[in-house]
Amino acid sequence: MWREPIEIMVAMGHGRSYGQDSVVLGRKISGIFPCALWRDLQNRAPLPTTALITDIGNDFLYGATPDRLLEWAEECLDRLAAAGAAASVTQLPIGSLERLGERRFQLFRRMLFRRSRLSLSEALQLVRGMNEQLTAVGNARKVPIISVSPNWYGFDPIHIKRRIEREAWPEILSGWRATSESIAPVRSSLTMTAYLAALAPAEHARFGFARRAAQPAARFFDGTTISLY
Which residue in 56, 55, 77, 52 sits closest to 1, CA to CA? Predict the structure, then answer.
């Protein structure tokens, strides 16, 4: 989408919360809103910036209320606006969740969010309400709210199928482009895929042991960098 060197800054992680620490499979990581990404973004020289806010629904499984979760998301939008970023937000995958049975929902909840007692019916109610609130925020702020297709998901109801990623991500990121020119994803080698998967975030803990890594975590020959938080 950009031919010049770019600086990629990502706050990511399975089961990541927007506002509080979370632990999934022994890996503890801070919330997105309190993480060091915002400090580093503020300290960098101003550049044309785009941003994506996605995977908002994890916090419902940590007991966060819709109002609190929306507050965290809007605070992220405020910080991005202060940085001059053109932001987009994805809705929660309501279509995928509607196809779930209670048994499969409970299976994934117990594997990834063991302390949660949320039922499927409660989750559906929360997700529908959050999507409506995100649409209202998008209209008020003039921020694109991207709907997600249920066809992007399979047995796993919240992670896009690998074979669909080359179709889904260009659609998710289409709001970043001023033209209708199609986006052609670049295929990555197995070596590059393994290298990217091994990059360490600025701070996290594994089974109680704190770990830190200098950022950017990756630098490429064309000047592109990747920083993980």
Answer: 52
What digits encode the pLDDT tens for the residues 155-168? 888 889 988 988 89
Question: Is residue 1 situated within a structural domain?
Answer: no
Q: What is the pLDDT of residues 5-20, one digit of tens each?
A: 999 999 998 889 999 9
- Indicate which CATH number applies to the domain containing 93: 3.40.50
Name the residue range of residue 214's domain.
Answer: 7-228
Q: What is the pLDDT of residue 201?
A: 94
CB 89 within 8 A of CB 144: yes
Q: d(Cα 69, Cα 60) in Å, to the nearest integer?
A: 8
Half-sphere exposure of 103 (CA within 13 A, CB side): 0
Peptide bond into 216 cis (omega under 30): yes
> For a pLDDT cut of 90, what percent of the chain falls above it?
65
In sign, the C-alpha dihedral spanning 61, 67, 68, 69 is: positive
In-domain check, residue 222: yes
What are the Cα distances from residue 219, in Å, to 39, 78, 146, 159, 224? 20, 29, 30, 28, 6
Average pLDDT over residues 135-162: 92
